[in-house]
Each structure stands twice: as C-alpha cells, then as structure tokens.
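Troubleshooting log. The previous run stalled partway through. Resubmitting the same two chains, unchanged.
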Amino acid sequence: MPAAVSVRNLQIETTSGVPVVMDVSFQIAPGEVLGVVGESGSGKTTVGLALLGHARRGLRIAGGEVLVGDQDILMLDVEHLRRLRGSTVSYVPQDPASSLNPALRIGIQLREVLQAHAGGRGRDHDERIAETMREVALSDDPTYLRRYPHELSGGQQQRVGLAMAFANRPRLIVLDEPTTGLDVTTQATVLSTVRELAAAHNVAALYVSHDLAVVAALARRVAVMYAGRVVEFGFAEELFESSAHPYTQRLVGAIPRLTGGRSLLGIPGHAPSPGRRPPGCAFAPRCTMHIPECDAQIPPLSPVGPEHSARCIRAVEVMPQTQARAGDPVDVAPAAGSAVLTLENVVARYGKVEVLHSINLQLEHHECLAVVGESGSGKTTTARSIAGLHRDWTGSIRLGDKELETSARSRSTESRRQIQYIFQNPYGSLNPRKTVGETVGQPLAVFGIAKGREADHRVGLMLEQVSLSAAYARRYPDQLSGGERQRVAIARALISSPSILVCDEVTSALDVSVQAAIVELLGQLQRDLGLSMVFVTHNLPLVRSIAQKVVVLSEGSIVEYGETAQVLADPQQPYTQQLIAHTPSLETATAEARVGEQRRPVIER
Amino acid sequence: MSQTGQALAEGVGTPTPPVRSSTLVTRAFRLWRTRIGALFVLILVVVAIVGPYVAPHTASEFVAIPNSPPGGDAGVLGTDYLGQDVLSRFLYGGRGILVMAAVSTAIGLVLGVAIGLVAAYTRNALDDVLMRAMDVIMAFPQIMLALVAVSLVGAQTWVIIVAIAVTTAPRVARVARGAAQPVVERDFVAATESMGLSRVRILTGELLPNILGPMMVEASLRLTYSIGVIAALAFLGLSPDPNGANWGTMIQQNQIALATQPWGALTPIIAIALLTMGTGLFGDGIARTAAGIDRERGDE
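Second attempt completed without errors. Output:
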C-alpha cells in the first residue's frame, strides 16, 4: 500500500528567519493514525497545520514537501489550497466550543462544508449529512440537526467537528488535541470514533497531543517531537518499553500509573524556545545522560530497530533502562486521625438546580483527600463551597470545630487564611498587570502577616520553596510558562501558612510532563508542611502517588469513598471502574498499544 | 528523594528575562499616528498656555478697521468684526476651552469608570439600576442636555463643566462595564475574594489596571467630544464670557466675513480641528498598541 501522505524535510521558520521546525519527515498510510507527541512549544501543532499548507501568523514554511497522493500541498496557490482544505485534507481543532459557529444550527454548518466543495443547494445533501451524523454516533434526527452548538455537550460538539472533518471523505485529517478539555469517558469514545472512521474510510490521520498515553490509545506509530525536531520515531509499545531517547523515557515516566505506587517524574528545566536552541542535541541541558559529545552537533535520526529511530548518540544505552527509571516508591503517610474539615449534609445549588446532594466528607490532619469525577459531577462545586467561593449551599462545613459561613466574605479573616484555594487555570488565576512578587505578597498584606522588606523576604523564600527563584518576583505572568504560573499560584496559596489547601484540577491545563512535576511538588509540600489537602481531579491514576483517600463523585453524589490503593485496585462501583478504564495511564496505554499491534494495517514501502 | 528534588527543579537556572520596561503608552509611541496626534495636542496646549503671554495685543483691544485682511496695522491674521487682532484673540481663546474640556472629561471619566466597574462587579439588580439610569441620560444628545442646563442655570463655567461631565459619564460607564465584565469572571478576582479583600480594593487594584487600555482610548475620544461640545456652545453664544476671546465664539462672530477676511473664523476652526484630530489619533494609537500586546500575549 503506498503512503497516503508523505512529508519530506519540512522546514518552518519565523518570518525573521529563526528556525521553528526542522527536518521533519514521515509517511502515513491510508487508514493509519500517526501520533505526534511533544510539550507545548515543541512545534507539533505547527507541523499539523503545515499539512494543510497553513502557517500561523509570524511563521512561514521555508522548505520541504508535503505530498498528499502525488500533489505537493506546499506548491499550491491560495485558490487551490482553499479547494483542497475541507475536502482532501481537513482539520479538527482543539476546542470544539470555539470552532463551531455559535449562531448557526449544526445541520447548517455541516451542509456548508458539503456545499463548499460539492456544490448543490437547499436539501441536496440531507442524506449525506444524516450518514455523517450516524458515523460519529450522533442522532441523524432532523430536530437534532436544528440544534445550536451550545445545546450540545463538549463531547457532542467535538463529534460534530469530526463529522464536518470527515464529511467530504478526505484523504488526510489532522487532529489537534481534539480531546483536551473532555471528560475521560467522552475522550475514550471520541478516540475510538476517530480510530474507526479512519480505518473504515482509509483516511490517513495525524493526531497531535502532549499526552503520550492518549496517543498510544489510537496510534500505532508515534513521532516524538522536541524543540522542533522529531527526536524519536517508532511503534507506540516500543516507545513505552524500550524508548531510545532520554526525552521519551522521561515522558513515559511522567504518565500516571495505576499500580506500583511510584512517584511521577517531571522533566527538569524548559524546552528551549526557537532561536535559543543549543548547537548540539536540544535536550542535552535537561538530560541526565549528558556527555560532552552531545553538544558537538545535532545527532542524526538514526535507526535503532525495525521502524524505530532516535536522535540520540547514546540510544543503545538508553533502550534497556526504561522500566528501571520509574520514580521512587511513595510512602503515603497514614493520617493522624483528627478531623480538620468536616462536611455534613452539604447541598449546593446553582439557581434552582441542585448540583450537590447531601455530601458528607471528613478531611483529617495531614491527609490528602482526592475528589474525583467527570465534569458535572459536582467536584468543583464541592471545592468552591469549602473555600466559600460558591455561596449557595446549605448544611454544615466545619473547620476544626468551628462552623463556617457560606461565603468567604462573611467568614473570619482567620478561617479565610486557614483555607487556601488553587485554581484550575493558571492563565486566569494570576492578574496579568501584577508582578509575581505583588501577587504572591498580596495575602501577607491582606491577612496582616508582614509588610515591606519582611514581606519581600518571605515572598523570595516562598518562591524558592516552589522551585522558582526569588528573581521571579519581578516578572509578569505573561513571561512565565504554564507550569511556572501554577507554581506562582501555589506560592500565593501557601505564603499565609494555611492548614488546608484546596486544589481544583490544578494540572488539567498543563502538559503531562509539567503535571507530573506539579503533583510531585504538591505532594512534597504537603508532607513537609503538614498540610491537609483536598485534591480535585478527573484523573484517577494521578491521585495514586499523592492522596490517602479518594472520593468518587457522580452527578452530585458520592458513589465511592475509601483508601486510594483500595479504590484503584478494587473499585466497587461500575462508575469508578469505567472511570479507571477510560483514563489513560501507563497500564491502559501499554495495553492499548499491544492490542493495536494486531489491529492496525501495516505500511509497506 | 533525590529524583524528586530534581523533578522539582523545572524553571530553575533559566535566565530571568529583563523586567518589562515599556508600558502601554511608551509602546504606543512607536506608532506614527500616536506621535503625530501627540504633537498636534502638544502644539495647541502650548498655544493655549503660553499664548496670552506672547500675544501682541490684548484680547479686546481695537487695532484696525474691522475685518481688515492680514498686513500692516491689522497684524499677521488681520482683524475681526470689531477690529480686534485675530492672532491675539486666537492666542487668548484656547485656554478656556482646553481647561473646561479637560476638567469636565476627567470628572466624567472618574464617574463613568466608577459606575461601570461597580455595575460589572455586582452583576445583580444594582447593575441593572445603574445601567438603565445611564441609558436614560444617553437617550438625549450631549449637546441638548448641555443646552438645557445652560439655559436653566446660565452660562457659567461650572454649569458647562458639570453638564458635560454628567453626559460623558454614561458613555464611559458603558465601555468600562463592557471591558470589566470578562475580567470579573477571571479566577484572580475570585482568588482575592477568597482572601477577603475589600470590594473597593478589588475594583481599584484588580479590575481597574486590566481595563486601562480601553479606558485611555475612551478618554481621548471623550476629550474630543467635550472640546466639540464646548466650542459648539460658545458658537451658540453660550460661554461664560460672551465677549471674551474663545475659539467657539470667534467662529460664530466672524463667519459673516468668511469671504472677505476668512482668518477670523478659519484660525479657530483649524485649531479645533487639529486638537480633535490629535486626541483622536493618540487614542487610536493606544488602541492599536493594546490590541497588539494582547495578541502577542495570547490572552484569552
């Protein structure tokens, strides 16, 4: 079978000539899904867009070729590209909520895609639209097609996005992290839809993601990108078991695992930004196996096995040690046994809708309690009620033996200081007009703990405690990466020495490798400072290395509550079992990769 | 825990980039439109302030036959309908307009921003009450309300200032509320609420800095309109001192002679045009820069 898409020597640079993506070459067979994995800034989305002949503002495609069939996309003029996009090649963007037009019914949007390329008017494409809707497992009922995007859930919106992308039977489809922001169960079904559609219609697909575990769930071959280059290329299961590049190895180490109770390992340092990349191997400054030869020149992508190649001069030494380099075993200390926070019969509402039905929880001294559930399960409402950010609740929340008021404003300063909250999105939780120092120092002033020099000194110490340096105090949030912003948010929460830390999905906006580092930091701070912590997440395997107890929420009620190890190893409720099965972890990803080996078509060259 | 220690080191050892040195305004000055706008405004402000000290005659001194063209006794710009020196009256006539425009716009801005921020932050009935009250004021053209106020109380300086401030405020409030609404929803506001920061401090310390960009644009736009309204009132004969030198009054008094001695009316017309163009260009430069910074930053 000849390749449906072949990319040779793709070069992308900024308009001022700084190289962003270099020497990217790969082929995708019809019906195959190729995964592209990398951290933010690795150039993975840039490569994906280049397959549509598009470069984002400030970038330009400087060289190479993208052959779809025998047509070089990079040689086409604007008019030909327009005809090609949406018909021969199509794109599924990251955020379905913003990629669908909120003012048009979904049926009309689907019809537009068909009319743009096949012509026709009125009701010409009704049958085709119904067929596409069935393909993505949505209702083909005309009344359903008359819905607006806001009347659909996130997963349904993304399915409409998929339907639009597959509608004209493209030969190539580029998926740019289409499941980010979706629940794990929804994600699992969207992923399987993509896999089935690509196989059924012989569509070549490029799946871009920062999460190796997600990619492994549907791609047989995976390209790992770092600093604009492909650093490793191989079968998914080989990358897990015998990765030949230290970077891939660290990515694998950052994936949460269900068993073994080992800590996650983040990757120290930053990916270098374009223009600041070192002369030799770009990963060398962060690599534990760094030797002087690494800096001499950029290592070539050399084969280390059948259809497996890596850009590392020590690949042969790296391959045998993947499994050995998992994190240290974690001893999650038992809780001391006195309740610091008690929720009794908490019922919360949004307007007239009851979103929490009688929640009873107890957080003990030095304990980390994970609150897990899908979106809409009420986990964030629980966290916000504890912090007094959600006011419309009844029942009782006690801090020690003190009854708490519903809203933070009516609580005493002391109880506000005791409970600190870390938000999900570090891009929204820091005031862009304030320096890091002002943000972190604010609680000191508000709670009257310290001011002036003393406050500055404390801010510096706190920043060092979250593994930033005191010099960060002078920066503004837009000069920080996502992981650094979240560290600043953690510093702001901890500087007033609270006793309870409420973390609301603190890693869901971050890359997997950064997530690992943040979770480790929180775990260590919790142990060192003797904090009690409520850790809200949708990612069950993630709580393995940090929480002693887990509460599983579904539709506003507690469905399971118990010791972490026990819940993960032996979930009692079908809901929990489903949640575990659908969350990408090292175990599920490896299993998927093995199954995939027998399932996927083989490329011939 | 050695490995963990290492894992925590993300971000350490990277060089700290220089602290952001340029503010919105300094960056805006990289655009030609901002520079030209500022230059126009600067020239006219200097004329208004220094003018009375360098004027060859006083504002009401008879120098030559009325409506004489430039040259000789009549001076470089000729004389007006009463035989007064046009250049001197032009140099005297800017100060009143500029001071009144600046003061009334400033009051209107402060009022409007305060109302807009409170409305955006409360999100409850107060929001509706405030904004509907603003709508009522906005239902009348600015010049009409000013005319009503002046004809009721008299053409005193404070009346004109208050009338313009009150009519400017609702327009500013709309923009301030619109700009502040998305900011209110962001988590850093909730973070300060959970600390128990007072409402006033949240409005001034957290929200206000985040809407400064659009508010500066609005300020320059409102200043432009205020100048226009004050000049228009003077043109209609409604200025604190109807016989005093005033650009608006000058236009009205000398329009009859446009064909024979155009400078009497044309000089103040050009001055007002340049002034409003200047504030407009300046505001536009700031707006473009703010939009550019937001794009660079990838703000949601």
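Takeaways: Residues 1-21 of chain B have pLDDT under 50 and may be disordered. DSSP finds eleven helices and no strands in chain B.
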